[in-house]
Amino acid sequence: MGEAGYESRFVGATDGLNLHVRVYGAPKTGHLPLICLAGLSRNAADFDVLASRLSATRQVIAPDYRGRGRSDWDPNWQNYALPVELNDVLAVTTVLGIDKAIFLGTSRGGLLTMMMSAARPGLIAGAILNDIGPVIDGTGLARIKSYLGKLPEPRDLDQAVALLKSIGSAKFPALDDADWYRQAEGMWVTKDGRLTPAFDPALTKPMESLNFDAALPTLWPQFDGLAPVPTMVIRGEHSDILSAETVTAMVARRPDLEVLDVVGQGHAPLLTDAASIDRIADFAARCDAV
């Protein structure tokens, strides 16, 4: 493990693409690994604070999906799809020798976690859904579509932070400057002296055909598939992707569902504050004991 606090590994997807994975810490007897799955255009950097804290007691693994972070870009943009990405996550677990883990999925990562309940249920020892549920609010998706891949190129990190604040400060009033800078450092990378997005621009293509006026498909069967394992849902106070009504409906189906509300944040909570990290650590410890 290097100075960054994690080891970078590269795993071959079934179609040959190289997938980058951050591995924090070594496997620890009696403590299940935690696998962190990021949002649509995000990457493993989102979990650095959380992973660094929790790696003292359990191994934490954070993959970059294809086309994000340090993973290869896919020459076929149609492969930026949930079934392909689920297969990539399963390839990572196979190569790393993981047969059971706790999954923490932010947004798209939560969709993948729910889908895994059908594809490989025995792999899941516990599930944390960060600001995502079986019903997705199209308002939030429309907002993401409005700026994803369309932001101007920032000249430096300060301007990158200003851009993020311009689109997100209303929903994230609780963030401080360190939070905003950490977000910017994960969203942009320096190439040839310029700041460019840390994802393939073609990632926006699958969203072009989405009709936000029609009801989006729901994932209740996939959520119900998590019934055998401890499950937790996290919701940002100002989320426009996961409504309070959906959380209420989730609890009605799963009275044992653990719920964490994050005040002063929207979609999706950063999980860098001590209170959220402590709750996740406690939940993971309960999964160890099941």
How would you explain this protein's 3D organization?
With 290 residues, this protein is α/β, with parallel strands linked by helices. It has a domain at 7-136 and 217-285: Alpha/Beta hydrolase fold, catalytic domain (Rossmann fold), CATH 3.40.50. 33% of the residues lie in helices and 18% in strands. It has 9 helices and 10 strands. Strand 3 (34-37), helix 1 (48-54) and strand 4 form a beta-alpha-beta unit. Helix 2 (82-95) crosses helix 3 (108-119). The longest helix is centred in the last third of the chain and has 16 residues, at 274-289. The protein is globular.
What is the compact description of this entry?
With 290 residues, the chain is an alpha/beta fold. It has a domain at 7-136 and 217-285: Alpha/Beta hydrolase fold, catalytic domain (Rossmann fold).
